[in-house]
Specification:
The protein has one domain: 3-Layer(aba) Sandwich (Aminopeptidase), CATH 3.40.630. About 30% of the residues lie in helices and about 35% in strands. Helix 1 packs across helix 2. The two termini are about 30 Å apart.
Length: about 190
């Protein structure tokens, strides 16, 4: 499966992507604001193999981010969406862009593609995103794309030997389609 953006391709992961995924998931620098980062490459490989081999209705979707005009499809990041609460039709999203590609709008476009996928293909009622309160760039992306900061979970994350707040963002199906409708009229 491929999600096609203006400048990006989000391609559903395959076994050919496992080395890249393991490198990304175990890179402390890419997940600087997270309270947990994988350190065991074999665990990551096994976890993603299970996801790749999952049959039937999926509980998560993982995508390699690459530039649309790159004929080699060089990975520049990872975008993910997974069930948050299945029976409520809510999904959670996450993403990471490699440092060489940061601050160029690729994070925003990745999130926009995930939101479109969630509401148009997964029949989502709600999509959420969470981030360390100090991760102002992730917060800004979610707000810019119409997600609302619904909550601040006080001292939710034990990060760098201190307790840090976590921001909780969401967007409802009706809010998403109102934004899409407004954008199409411009």
């Amino acid at each position: 499966m491929i999600l096609l953006g203006d400048r990006l391709l989000l391609t559903q992961i395959t076994t050919d992507d496992l080395d890249f995924i393991c490198r990304v998931e175990c890179d402390q620098n890419l997940w600087y604001y997270e309270d947990f980062v994988h350190s065991d490459v074999n665990e990551v490989r096994e976890e993603y193999m299970e996801k790749i081999e999952e049959e039937g209705e999926r509980s998560s979707y993982d995508f390699i981010i690459s530039l649309r005009d790159d004929k080699h499809n060089t990975p520049i990041g990872l975008a993910q969406i997974w069930h948050y609460v299945d029976h409520r039709r809510s999904w959670e999203l996450g993403f990471s862009i490699l440092p060489d590609y940061e601050r160029q709008g690729y994070g925003s476009e990745s999130v926009k593609l995930l939101l479109d996928f969630a509401f148009n293909q997964l029949d989502a009622h709600k999509v959420i995103g969470m981030c360390n309160s100090l991760n102002t760039r992730s917060s800004a992306i979610m707000e810019r794309l119409g997600m609302t900061k619904e909550a601040v979970f006080k001292e939710e994350l034990y990060w760098q030997e201190q307790w840090i707040d976590q921001h909780f963002f969401s967007i409802l199906e009706k809010e998403y389609f109102a934004i899409v409708h407004a954008d199409s009229e411009q």
